[in-house]
Design goal:
0% strand, mainly alpha, 62% helix
Length: 90
């Protein structure tokens, strides 16, 4: 089964949000867009731009190519201080 790049990217973002304990609202603040716009991108109703991918990768301290490679690679590339156990509880 072949998974599209856009599906792989959405899965990576969802995985990193889970690992870091961040919400769509948090990502919206990073990108300067609304939570609704993040939701539309994560549902596939709108596309993530390359600039947004780069901004998210920089936010998480990983390379943009790791973000595009899928959730496993993106999670493995995430620096340890970003792990959920070291984040404040929500």
């Amino acid at each position: 089964m072949v998974i599209s790049l856009s599906s792989r990217l959405r899965a990576s973002i969802a995985a990193l949000m889970h690992v870091t304990g961040e919400s769509q609202r948090d990502l919206a603040a990073v990108l300067g867009i609304s939570q609704g716009q993040v939701s539309r991108r994560q549902s596939g109703a709108a596309a993530w731009s390359l600039e947004q991918c780069e901004a998210l990768a920089a936010h998480w301290g990983i390379d943009a190519l790791d973000l595009l490679a899928g959730p496993t690679r993106a999670s493995e590339a995430l620096p340890e201080p970003n792990a959920r156990s070291e984040r404040r509880p929500r």
